[in-house]
Amino acid sequence: MSRAAAPILAAVLSCLLLCHCSDFAVKRLSDPVRVVSKNLPEPDGNRSRVYHRAYQLVKQAQSMESSAPAAALGRYLEAAEMLTEAGDDQLLPLTNFATGQAAELLVSQPDLRVGHGRERRYRVEIPRVTRADSLRGKIALSEFTKVVAAETLELKGWKHRVMRGGVGAAMVAHYQPAKTGRAKEDQFLHESGIFLPVTVVVDFPRRGVARFQTHDSTVESRVRVNGRQRLLSADLTAPIALSLEKARSRGLLEDLRGVFYPVRYVKNLGLYSVQKFDRRKTPLILVHGLASDPSTWSTTLNGLFTDAEVLAKYQIYFFYYPTGFPIRRTGSALKKELLELQGFYHKMGITPDQAVIVGHSMGGLLTSMQVRNFGPKTWRKIATIPLQKAQLAEQVKKDYRTLMQLPRPTMIDRAVFIATPHRGSQMANDWIGRVVISLIKIPQQALTLDPVKASRSLTELGRTILLNDDMTNGVQALKHNNPALKLVASTPVADAVSYHSIIGDRGLGDSPHSSDGVVAYRSAHLQGAQSEVIVPAGHSAHTHPQAIRELRRILRLNLKSN
Question: Which residues are the signal sequence here (predicted)?
Fold first, then answer.
């Protein structure tokens, strides 16, 4: 890249990064127990005696974690047992804190589970979890590579922290699938693992025995403790925040390289689950837009998790793709991934016939390609001969074979388009779009073969789509009046699919003449949508509270409709 291009590129990048959030951060509190104790009422009488003794044990344990972890564990458990026996709900925050710190030690140092000589005052029990238990939301603490007490984390930049007060320590647990012999349920988990919201409850069934039970906070909200039904504590935002922090540690340049050098990032392309597989949940697939990645959905996800029904009923998947590729390539890749996901559910004995797919911006274009009835009729608009005889690069033929000949993923019952340029965006035609397009590097052999030979078998529309230098990458696909987009838009949506639109107007209230700053209303509007909602937002409409509220409504509607 020339130095002369650098200032122009800087301006381009500022436009591409509209959907990225820069103000989010996660920090570990330096003295979390002090923060916890501040929220406790002034102790008196017996409560005061129990509180001060337990508080001292916790402070001692904190100072011993590095030098004498077994002794620290013993003190945390002694404090938790003392507070549990007191049965005073006003002391619950300190009980939960001691439980969380003990759980952190047990996961980070597994040998503590069997104890260390005289320092071991408690025998730790982590009950085996059966399949029936797992369906009820129970998980063995030993399954995790790391756990962190959510209350020890300060989350910066989050307007709403979705939490629930109750018994147990609200934790963020890191689950990493096995590198070899991966369980079939973990097929769609990324090799780096996922962060999960869990609640750890410790009880003391016999003297000297501490029993740890872990509950999936997205499945279980209540638990029986000492013969009483109790609400479980939970922090649903902290795992999202840690996932975002991990994604951001790569740097925003990774997403931009996915635009400019997509071939380098194709190995990461795929569908990824953000939760452990639960056969009772309905698939919800989220597809990001240009110069972005799945972390763009963090605020949306946090907003969805405020709805207990959505939280409990949906299995969430993200689709990641390098956004510099032509949408033909990424659209066909998404279709293959969805068919693979559908096959996975069938192998598990499940018919997932009410899945929802949501696409933002360019992701909405890929989403649109999954719900339309492509087939021989569509191909005949592009070429005069069968696909297998067309003089095109093998990758191009492969893409069209997937789009035109493979069956539509029938698991998709409903689609939601957010700020989607169905008819393109004028910005891609303007100088910003032209500069970005000129910087995208895709090997030409991956696009077509001999243009002269290829053109003989193509219709005029086919030549415009396949042989025009203007149609060879993702940003070009966003050009206003792009013939490829016209072809997609002219292909009917399957009768079985309901679809919805969420469109931004920047709060100007001037629809149908409005725009979100990138996509005009006339491009985002779809005839036949079951609902269309205008929100006072720019192109990052998927993060706006009104858009999230509408998405929650649609997801609940989907559950009722099926």
Answer: 1-25
pLDDT, residue 43, reads 64
Q: Report the sign of the C-alpha dihedral through residues 453, 459, 463, 465, in that order.
A: negative
DSSP code string of 251-277: -THHHHHHHH-GGGGGGG-EEEESS--
Q: What are phi and psi of 27, to 5 degrees?
A: -135, 140
Counting the structural domains of the chain, the total is: 2
Question: Which residues make beta-bridge pairs with 318?
Answer: 272, 286
Note the pLDDT tens digit of each residue in 343-381: 999 999 999 889 999 999 999 999 999 999 999 999 999
Contact 103, 171 (CB under 8 A): yes
Q: With contact defined as beta carbons under 8 Å apart, do 396 and 388 qualify?
A: no
Q: What is the pLDDT of residue 180?
A: 66
Backbone φ/ψ region at 434: left (φ over 0), alpha (ψ -120 to 50), beta: alpha
Rounded CA separation 307/318 (Å): 19
The conformational region for residue 335 under phi > 0 = left, psi -120 to 50 = alpha, else beta, is: alpha
- 9 in a structural domain: no
Q: If you average pLDDT over residues 334-342, what whole number do you get? A: 98
**Predicted confidence band of residue 263 (pLDDT cuts 50, 70, 90):** low
Collapsing DSSP states into helix, strand and coil, what is residue 152?
A: helix
Residue 551, domain member (yes or no): yes
Residues 218 and 298 in one domain: no
Residue linked to tokens 């991956």? 446
Other beta carbons within 10 Å of 205: 8
For 456-472, give one letter per residue: b (16+ CB within 10 A) or e: ebbeeebbbbbbeebbb
Q: Is residue 17 part of a domain?
A: no
One domain, residues 258 and 228 = no
Strands (E), 427-480: none
Answer whether residue 452 shows pLDDT above 70: no
Mean pLDDT rounded to a whole number for the chain? 85
Please check whether residue 114 lies inside any domain of the structure.
yes
pLDDT band at residue 255, thresholds of 50, 70 and 90?
low
Mean predicted confidence (pLDDT) in 67-91: 93
Domain co-membership, 373 together with 424: yes
Measured CA to CA, the distance from residue 157 to residue 26 in angstroms comes to: 9
Is the pLDDT at 489 greater than 80, yes or no?
A: yes
Residue at a domain's end among 200, 218, 239: 239
Tell me how far apart the alpha carbons of residues 90 and 163 are, in angstroms, rounded to a whole number: 18
Instruction: For residues 300 and 537, give the distance between their C-alpha atoms in angstroms, rounded to a whole number.
Output: 14
Other C-beta atoms closer than 10 Å to the C-beta of 11 total: 11
CA 476 to chain centre: 27
Q: CB within 8 A of 405, min separation 6: which ones?
A: 375, 387
Query: For position 471, which CATH number holds?
Result: 3.40.50.1820
Got the DSSP string for 300-357?
HHHHHTTSHHHHHHEEEEEEE--TTS-HHHHHHHHHHHHHHHHHHHHHTT---TTEEE
Question: Do 161 and 257 sit in the same domain of this protein?
Answer: no
Domain that holds residue 163: 25-239
What SS3 string covers 89-105? HHHHHHHHHHHHHHHHH
Check: CB of residue 61 under 8 Å from CB of residue 111: no
Domain shared by 349 and 411, yes or no: yes
Backbone phi, then psi, for 223, in 5-degree steps? -150, 150
Q: Which of 208, 239, 270 is the last residue of a domain?
A: 239
